[in-house]
Amino acid sequence: MPAQSLFRIAVTGALSLVVGCSNPFAPPNIGPRGGAPIKPLTSPENVLDNLVYAYEQRDIDVYETLLDPDFVFVYFDPDRIEGIETVVVPRDGPSGDLERTRRLFRVFDEIRIPVFDTTATSVDSSGPRVLQMRRVAFQLTLRDLSGDFGYESFEATGDAMFWFGRSDSGGLWHIVRWEDLSNQ
Q1: How far, in Å, are 1, 5, 18 from residue 14 at the CA level?
Q2: What is the pTM of this model?
Q3: How does strand 85-90 pair with strand 110-124?
Q4: Which residues partner with 23 through β-bridges?
Q5: CATH label of the domain that carries residue 74
Q6: Is 12 inside any structural domain?
């Protein structure tokens, strides 16, 4: 076999190993878990855009990068015996928001948020940290297209308030508090 043919085989083999082990289209890794947001977290608006992306792509790694370490999710449960009860869900733990969102992403094959419009903004500087608020009108559609969970489908429309804080390291914005106001 000519030397040029051996060289071509060796280069082709090496290239296939390199290309087979990496994805040139993969986004760069950042943060502790390796999820990379689509937009830099330099404004609350970018964080909200990334939130829609994370939900629609069911990307828990991107979702996790959006949350502050002190994040809480708050909703109002109208099905409690004593009336509407405020429920506060922490970020971490077996029944925390990250685990609940992970399960949501597993159950539903399609998640769409066709409406996600900011309707109000404010700033709260009364606490130890300056927070920016965005009130958002949303529409959310969840569908189990594979039938793994009985072809369930849900739609929700309502308002939510997001409170954003800037991190000390890097000055990036994260969601500190998310209040679902749709059952109030």
Answers
A1: 19, 14, 6
A2: 0.77
A3: unpaired
A4: none
A5: 3.10.450.50
A6: no
For 131, residues 6+ apart whose C-beta sits below 8 A from its C-beta are 123, 124, 125, 163, 164, 165, 176, 177
| Residue 121, domain member (yes or no) | yes
Among 182, 135, 174, smallest CA distance to 158 is for 182
What's at 55, amino acid-wise? Y
Q: What is the dihedral of CA 85, 119, 99, 72, to 10 degrees?
A: -60
pLDDT over 50 at 148, yes or no: yes
Q: Is 125 contained in some domain?
A: yes
- % of residues, the chain, pLDDT over 70: 77
- Name residue, tokens 């708050």: 74
Q: Mind listing the pLDDT tens digit for each residue in 154-182?
A: 999 999 999 999 988 778 999 999 999 98
Task: Write out the residue range of the structural domain in which residue 124 sits.
Answer: 31-180
Residue 122: which of 141, 136, 102, 104 has the closest Cα? 136
| 23, part of any domain | no
Q: What is the pLDDT of residues 25-63, one digit of tens each?
A: 444 444 334 456 689 999 999 999 999 999 999 999 999
- What tokens were used for 155? 């739609």
Question: What's the number of domains the chain is made of?
Answer: 1
